[in-house]
Amino acid sequence: MLALNEDKKHLIFSVGKTGSSSIQKVLDSTWLSVGESNIKYSEWIQPYHHDDAERKMQQYEALDEIMFIYNPKVTCIIREPWKRFVSGTKEILQDYCYLLYKDHDQFEENWNRMMDNPAVLAEILSRVFYITEFDTDEHYRKHTFNWHRSFSIFHNYHTKNWLHKVKQIPNANIISINELDNFIASLGYTPVRENVSSKRDIDAIDTALKNCNVYHIIENYLKPELQLYESFN
Predict the structure, then answer these.
(1) Is residue 110 in a domain?
(2) For 205-218, how does the pLDDT look when each residue is reduced to its tens digit (9 = 90+)?
């Protein structure tokens, strides 16, 4: 999520599963914001790049240009990486199921069956990893993730490692998701909770990930993210 208040020169940056839905719910029209979608030049940067008005760019890509143009103070919302990965995995699996079971009752029945059967859930997640596996290039192996194979889930908006980007933002104000209500109140809004997962679902996904056959790779993937998270505390 990116949210920009041009008058206050304040930019809020977070990636999925860090309370961004709760922030966007309360922001008024003085803020320009976008959730998971890419940014359009015509909405954010168009006055400075007339020829590229309809071009879309990833939020990562947009950060540097927005900071150059507006010179805002930047607030980044972060979350403990394992908890975020669990929540993001639940979001991805839920999206798959919505496509398979568009009937609400059918979705609920099958979702509950998965959440109440840890062995089946671990097998499903293992399969999700298996069918999205791919060879990594040399740079990725050496510098980003010290493993010869990767999975699409590691590059999904809700689960990708991103704290290296926060580290690159000079003088960023780092807010933990645990401080989100106080931060929202400091902006002058009443805190709300949006898109909150049930404890049962989160516990089930947590257990299943630890029991799936690629857990050791997940641990390796999250290691640098965990180290960066600790450096912010």
Answers:
(1) yes
(2) 999 999 999 999 99
